[in-house]
Amino acid sequence: MGSTLFDKVWDAHVVKKIENGPDILFIDRHLVHEVTSPVAFLGLKRRGISVLYPNKTFATADHNTPTKNQHLPVEDPLSANQLAAIEKNAGDYGIPYWGLGHHKNGIVHVIGPENGITVPGATIVCGDSHTSTHGAFGAVAFGIGTSEVEMVLATQCIMQPKPKTMKIEISGSLSFGVTPKDVALYIISQLTTSGATGYFVEYSGKVFEEMSMEGRMTVCNLSIEMGARGGMIAPDEKTISYVEGREFAPNGADWDRALDYWKTLHTDEDATFDKVISFEAADIEPMITFGTNPGMGGSIMSDIPKDFEGSASYKKSLDYMDFKEGESMLNKKVDYVFLGSCTNGRIEDFRAFASIVKGRKKADNVTAWLVPGSHVVEKAIKDEGIFDLLTEAGFEIREPGCSACLAMNDDKIPPGKYAVSTSNRNFEGRQGPQSRTLLASPLVAAAAAVTGKVTDPRTLMQVESLTE
Amino acid sequence: MAYDKFEVLKSSAVPLPIENVDTDQIIPARFLKATERKGFGDNLFRDWRFNSDDTPKADFPLNNPRFSGKILVSGKNFGSGSSREHAVWAIYDYGFRCVVSSFFADIFRNNCLNIGILPVQVSPEFLQSMFKSIDANENTEFEVNLPEQKIINLETNESESFNINPYKKDNMINGFDDIDYLLNLVDDIKVFADKTPI
Ligand code: SF4
Prior knowledge:
The complex is a heterodimer of chains A (468) and B (198). Helices cover 33% and strands 17% of the residues of chain A. In chain A, helix 2 crosses helix 5 and helix 13 runs parallel beside helix 16. In chain A, strands 5-4-3-6-7 form a five-stranded parallel sheet. In chain A, strands 17-16-15-18-19 form a five-stranded parallel sheet, covered by helices on one side. The relative contact order of chain A is 0.13. Chain A is of the alpha/beta class. The model of chain A has no long low-confidence stretch (mean pLDDT 96). By secondary structure, chain B is an alpha/beta fold. Chain B has a single domain, classed as Aconitase, domain 4, CATH 3.20.19.10. In chain B, 33% of the residues lie in helices and 16% in strands. The longest helix of chain B has 13 residues. At the A-B interface, helix 2, helix 3, helix 5, strand 8 and helix 10 of A face helix 4, helix 6, helix 7 and helix 8 of B. The complex binds iron/sulfur cluster (SF4). Iron/sulfur cluster binds next to helix 4 and helix 12 of chain A.
């Protein structure tokens, strides 16, 4: 019997199987950031051991960093302390570190692919749940806790029971105005936030084949929001040409060896999954969430449902949002717009946002934070003229980092305010105490930013194509 | 680091009958700035426990003097969201050694096992009967028996078995640490590393 893509990559990395226990899995790339690593490094110190493979480990600062005046000392003493800790730890253990201001600095899941650290067929972990992003390249990538960060630093291995496999296939092609973010929010709304718990997902079908690498990253990024351990897409020509020539990607003879391996990375025709779920692309419309978890979403045209999977917490959720059952999502007032995060902070997301803003102005009632995922993205925004277009339309573009995605820095949505966000979580208080988050695509975010309310972006896109 | 051994825990329990409790509620991101694992218990469920002026919210179960104990009982899909181990540190630091729910998020469950909190997954019916017992008598004691993989309501004698990976079970009973285990295999790991294709 054949193997799935996931099985192939996982099995190629099993150092040892423990009877009745987890597999010991070798990790090819370990990404480290300032928030989940300090206690792990303390653990190494206590044990008196070093990092086994510093050259397979990469460190950045992103979660805690300000998005303004990065050239100045960080004001918050606790954040400054964490940044100092990672810099020292990286230095002490010989790990490459791209700190604040470094031209390679950015959100850990944005800089991995940009620098060729993320490659097909690799095992990649990071102390951050959205490590699933890297699955877009056909890697087995997942988030880990701090004890496991220490484990990987010390041994380059992790102990994990092998997850079950799930295939999510979508047939057909996406309609006009429907983006990868909508695909992911649609899947989560259908599966719920625990629908894929215990599984590793492979996305397959024409929709994903047609998607850009950026789009695939957005989809895989959100795998964790359906409870999955991770998600992946088989590598193809697009994947390989994205990776080729990037700094940390294999080169020379190593490249040829890698290519031979990568060509085997697809699910065999006779392989079976533990679960298969199918959707039709035609059913997917621009999405928006109305509740306090990413599964509480629907088409931007639809009303807030009367009953939601019989969930006892549904009412609590709507009370928090100050929404009522049966209300329409369209035309709801928006106070803030956040474009950014490892979900939608890449150049393609800024291009999409700018395509709606072009010829329009930011609405007066909206405060907008546009935060590139990395300095590389920031530079592309400038090079492509998007920076000028957006600033002239009244938008502020900040410096790279996680920013309002988790609001550890000063970028907090104020209590009670509504934010249309391109990030990944709408949990209570996620974007600041008492903040209210509506998750959506960069197109929906842009439509909200120029109209000041929840607006179907297709209406703005159609008008434009008619007048062109 | 090795942690406390876990064999049999007898305790009353604190009820939290809410579903989909995510890690942002267990410990909000703004409290993740420490560089040591200390004092997270103070901020456990911070925004549910305290008003913005830091006064306790009387209706939150952890603030209700009726409830106490080392077992936290919560609604389904507990611990979804981020991989932050700070969430389980906060639960541990507050004094809980066991969390009971009818469903756990994956990373959260791993994180619990890695620091010595036992996640006990029970049926929805058993969970409801636990809530009912605690509501009727807040001193209801439960026995969480890891060697026998059983949770028993000592008031009603109702019990249910739970699953745990045998390797993890062994580790918890003995207070063993995965890292010590792996460090003994470093030579094998190095041989393996030389053969990896990328
Ligand atoms: S952008 Fe948000 S989800 Fe992504 S790594 Fe940063 S905090 Fe995590």
